[in-house]
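To illustrate the input format used throughout this study, we show a single complete record. The first block contains the structure-token representation of the backbone; no residue identities are included at this stage. The design step must infer an amino acid for every position from geometry alone.
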């Protein structure tokens, strides 16, 4: 096992760390989905920003995970990329 894998295993035994890790994982999944949708639509950040009515730097912050997007922003992003926004709540 690598040192990183060992460290992760050790840290995951801590309930507080595990909770924060799961929160971060959900955010990373959203960021990946946003970038995937934009890439699939063959749009640059600048072109997507123009379609949504914002700036390229705002799209970069959104795709960088630096901000928590509103539901309205996610709807506009989905529409501009030809995607369908779907939000699920899953019971553990």
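Output of the design step:
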């Amino acid at each position: 096992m690598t040192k990183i894998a060992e460290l992760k295993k050790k840290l995951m035994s801590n309930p507080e760390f595990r909770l924060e890790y799961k929160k971060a994982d959900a955010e990373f999944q959203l960021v990946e989905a946003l970038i995937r949708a934009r890439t699939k639509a063959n749009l640059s950040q600048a072109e997507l920003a123009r379609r949504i009515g914002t700036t390229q730097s705002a799209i970069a912050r959104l795709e960088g995970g630096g901000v928590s997007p509103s539901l309205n922003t996610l709807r506009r992003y989905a529409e501009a990329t030809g995607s369908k926004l779907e939000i699920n709540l899953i019971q553990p």
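Structural context for interpreting the output: The longest helix spans residues 15-40. The radius of gyration is 16 Å.
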